[in-house]
Amino acid sequence: MIYSLLADMVLLLHLLFILFVVFGGLLVLWRIWILPLHLLAFAWGALIEFNRWICPLTPLENHLRKLAGGNGYSGGFIDHYLVPLVYPDAFSESRQYIIGVMLIIINLFIYAGIIVRIRKKKL
Question: What is the pLDDT of residue 88?
């Protein structure tokens, strides 16, 4: 029971981290001190996508699920939970690169908006 709960907590943490990687730049508008945290998280997320690495939270979640008597899963968090929602068929390497490029484009737009906002305040 406790291992299942811990695995679910890791899953939630993983999802929140992914959302922070993608949209955390918006929090910079709220608090500027978030900028270095987001840039580090963004860099980590981009490295994961472009190098096809598996986030360390995935093996931790799998381990906890096995301790709870369940089965782990192969691949990473995105492959297991998000890909079936977005891409019902197989997940290819090119699609992973597309996700990485989308991550960069989203954040370029967010940070461009932040720069425009900062410049307007200085004028």
Answer: 47
